[in-house]
Write a structure and sequence with these properties.
By secondary structure, the protein is an alpha/beta fold. The chain is built from 15 helices and 13 strands. It has three domains: 105 residues, no CATH class; 53 residues, Sun protein, domain 3 (Alpha-Beta Plaits); 201 residues, 3-Layer(aba) Sandwich (Rossmann fold). Strands 5, 6, 7, 8, 9, 10, 11, 12 and 13 form a nine-stranded mixed beta sheet that branches. Strands 2-3-1-4 form a four-stranded antiparallel beta sheet. Helix 1 crosses helix 3, helix 1 crosses helix 4 and helix 7 packs across helix 8. The chain is globular and about 75 Å long.
């Protein structure tokens, strides 16, 4: 592919990403993969170059552009040499008079979201929200030691905040490495590891991971508390179905249960008031993961945010009924928005006046209401809010 053809391919892909963001369809990574699945003539260098173009375009615009072409025209402001590719064979059509006025603007945060951000996330931190994220691994501490695996993974460094973590450069491949295939490590951002550490999992306890997804945090809890009874639940059958194979590879025993909202209290009646710990890693805006999913800014709207906040409130209330007296509830969201983090916990404590806020036992982060906020700029992790709550006897 010529440079002009690569730019045209990027424009076509970004058009699909814009449509997918509008319709809440597949993520950008999937769209790139699908695009090249039907274009076998593109070599690995072409695919890599186009993918990089696509994500440079996505990262520079917080607001959803009108089209892939307007997004690419915005990139011309940063990389003027690209303008020469317009009008070339197999490249984008030649520029029309005054067309550059339609170029997408360079912004980091969608305008409507700025008032929603935690006060801790000032403008000086905004650029870090879009930096390329490293590859973090969590050592399966039930079967391996971090210092041993450092020797097995050239280029790896210990993470600063999590005693379980290893950090590798972005785009490092790990899925075909023996330490991954044998279940000694799992891919997990350091911030996500800290949420599991905030749970302080103990041997012999009963734990529910209420929004387990594919089970990354359930696996971390199982590794840290070998004989704990762990129930991983979720409402997404596809995601939850990935956990049994992951648990087998890691040597962990985790029960799974598919839930059907709003019937969770009935479906978890056998656990009512029985759990030593309930982890609620709730569905959220995903604003803390823009480093990995920058098009998430194009997907989020006020209309989509409000139901998510309502779902978080519901899950917290469900979790409260599952915790035994003197037990704990840990709430987390990969979000930088106050209403999803500190505001959500403030509202919970007003509804459940007997509950108390406890110290969140993690390194890093900053106090944000009754919890702690981790941010890419301050902690070099994805953005997470995490709070620990106790149910009195």
């Amino acid at each position: 592919m010529t440079p002009a053809a690569r730019l045209q391919a990027a424009i076509e892909i970004v058009d699909e990403v814009i449509a997918s963001a509008r319709e809440d369809g597949p993520p950008a990574d999937s769209i790139v993969t699908r695009y090249f699945k039907h274009r076998r003539y593109a070599g690995s260098k072409d695919r890599r170059a186009v993918r990089e173009l696509v994500f440079r375009v996505i990262r520079r615009s917080a607001e959803r552009p009108e089209s892939g072409r307007s997004a690419a025209l915005g990139l011309v402001d940063d990389e003027p040499a690209l303008i020469e590719l317009f009008g070339q064979p197999r490249g984008p059509e030649a520029l029309q008079a005054d067309e550059k006025a339609t170029a997408a603007l360079r912004t980091v945060i969608p305008g409507w979201l700025v008032p929603e951000l935690s006060p801790l996330v000032g403008e000086t931190e905004w650029p870090a929200l879009l930096e390329r994220a490293p590859l973090d691994l969590r050592v399966n501490v039930a079967r391996a030691r971090r210092d041993e695996l450092l020797r097995e993974l050239p280029g790896a460094e210990p993470t600063r905040l999590s005693p379980w973590g290893l950090r590798l450069p972005p785009d490092t491949r790990i899925d075909d490495h023996p330490v991954y295939q044998s279940g000694l490590v799992e891919v997990q951002d350091e911030g996500s590891q800290l949420i599991a550490l905030a749970c302080e999992p103990k041997n012999g306890t009963r734990i529910i991971d209420l929004c387990a997804g594919a089970g990354g945090k359930s696996l971390a809890l199982a590794a840290a508390a070998l004989d704990a009874i762990i129930l991983a639940t979720d409402t997404n059958r596809g995601r939850l179905s990935k956990l049994p194979a992951r648990a087998e590879r890691a040597g962990a025993h985790i029960e799974t249960r598919l839930l059907n909202p709003p019937n969770e209290p009935d479906e978890l009646a056998d656990w009512s008031g029985q759990a030593d710990l309930v982890l609620v890693d709730a569905p959220c805006s995903g604003s803390g993961t823009w480093r990995r999913n920058p098009e998430g800014r194009w997907r989020l709207t006020p209309e989509r945010l409000q139901p998510v906040i309502g779902r978080q409130q519901h899950l917290l209330d469900v979790a409260a009924e599952l915790v035994r007296p003197d037990g704990q509830l840990v709430y987390a969201v990969c979000s930088l928005l106050s209403r999803e983090g500190a505001g959500q916990i403030e509202a919970f404590l007003s509804r459940h006046s007997s509950w108390i806020s406890e110290e969140t036992p993690i390194g890093g982060g900053r106090f944000d209401g009754s919890g702690r906020l981790l941010t890419p700029g301050h902690d070099h992790t994805d953005g997470f809010f995490v709070a620990r709550l106790g149910r009195p006897c």
